[in-house]
Design brief:
The chain is an alpha/beta fold. It has helices at 16-31, 68-77, 94-101, 147-156, 178-198, 203-209, 216-225; strands at 2-7, 35-40, 80-86, 107-114, 117-122, 130-136, 161-166. It has one domain: 3-Layer(aba) Sandwich (Rossmann fold), CATH 3.40.50. Bound molecules: flavin mononucleotide (FMN).
Length: 227
Amino acid sequence: MKILVLNGSPKRDKSDTLRMTNAFLDGMKDAGSQDVHVIHTVDSHIEYCTGCFSCMRNGGTCVHDDDMKAILDEILASDLLIWSFPLYCYGMPASLKALLDRTLPLSSMAMRKVGERYEHVEQADFSKLRYLMICGCGFPNSRHNFEPAVRQFEMCFPSSRTVITVPESPMFNAPEAESVTAPRLGKLREAGRQYAESGSISPELLSEITSPMIPEEVYAQIVNQSV
Ligand SMILES: Cc1cc2nc3c(=O)[nH]c(=O)nc-3n(C[C@H](O)[C@H](O)[C@H](O)COP(=O)(O)O)c2cc1C
C-alpha cells in the first residue's frame, strides 16, 4: 500500500504524535509490505491559499509555484493519507492547515448536495484514497479538547476515514513513563495491523488507545510539579 504521512508537528522526528504514527505503521508492516513516505510540513514550501479560486475553475492550476504541486501529485498517487499532528489550539498546526487549504485544486467550484450539506465536485479522482488522523495532545482530557479537530476532519473527509486521538502524549518522549507508553505503543501497533488487514480498528482497541495512560489528576500533578 502506498502511504503518505503528513506530519504536522514542527518537532519532526521527535514528535510525540509521530511516535504513535510510527508504531501504527510498524503494525501495518507486520501485515504486509508498505511503501511509506513522510512529509514534515514545517520543512515544505507551502504558500498560503490566496482565496482566488482560479485553481477550482475549469481544471485551473494554483497561482503559487511551490512544493504543493508535487504534494498534490503524491496525494493522488497514494492509497492512504495519514494526517499525523499534535493538537494546537484545538485544531491542527498552521503548516498542516496551510497544506489542507491548498488541496482546493482537487475540487471544482461546482457544488452538489449530499444528504443535508453541500460539497464541491471533484476535479481529480481520489476515490481510492483512505484517510487516517492520528492526533496527540498535552492535556489529559479528550472531551472538551479534541472535538473541533475531529469534527473538521470528519467534514473534510466524510468517508473512508478513521480517527485516533491520544491524550497525555508528551509522555511518549519521557523515558520514565515507559512502563505506560510501551504498552500503548503496542496497542497502536496492533491497531495498525488490524487496519492493514481489515481496513478498520475494533471499537474495543480504539477505546483503549484513546483513553488516558495514567489518571488525569496524576498526570496534571506531574506536569504541574515540573513547571
Ligand atoms: C501552540 C500550541 C498549542 C497547543 N494546544 C493544545 C490544545 O489545544 N490542547 C491540548 O491538549 N494540548 C495542546 N498543546 C500541547 C501539544 O498538543 C502537546 O504538547 C503534544 O504532545 C505535542 O505533540 P508533538 O510532539 O507531536 O508535536 C499545544 C501545544 C502548542 C505548542
